Amino acid sequence: MTWTDFLSRAAAAWPQVAWTDVLPAVLAGIVTIIVIKTGLRLLVQRLRALSKRTRTSLDDNLVSVLERTNAGLIWVVGLLVGLGLLPLDDRWHGRVSQLWFAVVALQIGLWAQQAVSQLLAAQQQRHGGGTALSASATLLSWGLRGALWVVIVLAVLSNLGVNITAFVASLGIGGIALALAVQNILSDLFASLAIAVDKPFEVGDSITVGDVTGTVERVGLKTTRIRSLGGEQIVMSNAELLKRTVANFKRLQTRRVQFNFGITSDASADVVASIPPLIRQLIEADPLLQFARAHFKGFGENSLNFEVVYRVTSPDYDVYMDRQQTLNLALMREFQQRGIRFATPATPTVNVLSSTDAPARAPTPPAPRRPASSLHVDAAERAGTSTPQTAG
């Protein structure tokens, strides 16, 4: 529709409107604006006062979303209310309804955009923030906002009568071509978003991935950097990282410990029966240890074997090693007091005979005299250049 057609239609519609109809429409529009602004202000004040008395952040987020109500759109709503009261023809009423849809869609888009920002900010605050999460959250925010406004614009254009089928089809084909061209980058990118949102590990966590063990230093948009135990930095693709099983040692709540030992096989049955209660007593004396079990496991080649299981309530590896050392020393002291000996690995026994105990040996016969021709054979053997043969 050209500007000439628009002005002609407007001129054809406005003569039907009398000044007595304009004044009530203007008043209705002004009252609508005042009511919306006043009600919105009161609602925000009530919710803000309520949020101070509650621990949840839902009401705070709702206040932030409502504060994103656009003042210009409120004036447009008042104008549309006034236009709706005028005796216009069906064409004008159709245009007014289309403007209503556009205004409502735009305001919903503003609210949804603020809600996305609040959600990502809450997610970032819940997990301690960090540069990696900030980058992923920003990228995710851009993606969600872009998809939101594309949907809103397409909905408004469709309501205005624009055929968006070809446009949507071209967007789909272009998106598929772009995704195929950068599929490796996109896989790492979405893996980075998954790490930021799902949080299988964070910066500073000690993890094991395959044969790599170290501390996470940085989670980027494409790669994750791990400082290994040897000191070198290992760079892994985010997509490949999530395909493997990740063991996160920082998430340990308790540490299960199992160790074995053996005593000499000459111990009596009563001594063997007294060892599990003794071990339980030593473990329960430490407030950081939880006894699980202690058993006489079986018979070894030269030992009586025991198996002990307990838990350390602290996930710290140094605490576990200190407690294990204390338990070992206490067990050694108790065994020394009771005359119990730890079994040692069997070693081969070597019997040394003196010269008087050695059996008489037969006299060694004299070596046969070599012919002169064998001298060159011995030299050849030492040099390794020929095969020795017996002289005839």
Describe this structure in words.
α2 packs antiparallel against α4 and α4 (71-85) packs antiparallel against α5. The protein is an alpha+beta fold and 392 residues long. β7 and β8 form a beta hairpin. Among the domains are: 9-126, no CATH class; 185-249, SH3 type barrels (Roll), CATH 2.30.30; 255-338, 2-Layer Sandwich (Alpha-Beta Plaits), CATH 3.30.70. Helix content is 57%, strand content 15%. The longest helix has 37 residues, at 90-126. The strands form two sheets. The chain has a five-stranded antiparallel β-sheet. The chain has a three-stranded antiparallel β-sheet with strand order 6-8-7.
List the helices and strands and how they pair.
Layout: H1 3-13, H2 19-53, H3 58-66, H4 71-85, H5 90-126, H6 131-159, H7 165-181, H8 183-198, E1 206-209, E2 212-219, E3 223-228, E4 233-237, H9 238-243, E5 246-248, E6 255-264, H10 269-284, E7 289-299, E8 303-312, H11 317-338, H12 375-383
Antiparallel strand pairs: 1-2, 1-5, 2-3, 3-4, 6-8, 7-8
Features:
single chain; elongated; Alpha-Beta Plaits; SH3 type barrels; 5-stranded antiparallel β-sheet; 57% helix; 392 residues
Question: What is this structure, in a nutshell?
Answer:
With 392 residues, this protein is α+β, with helices and mostly antiparallel strands. 57% of the residues lie in helices and 15% in strands.
Number of helices: 12
Distance between the termini: 125 Å
Strand order of the largest sheet: 4-3-2-1-5
Shape: elongated
What order do the helices and strands follow?
A: HHHHHHHHEEEEHEEHEEHH
Strand content: 5-15%
Cα gyration radius (Å):
43 Å
Class by alpha and beta content: alpha+beta
Q: How much helicity do the residues have?
A: 55-70%
For the report, how would you describe the main beta sheet?
5 strands, antiparallel
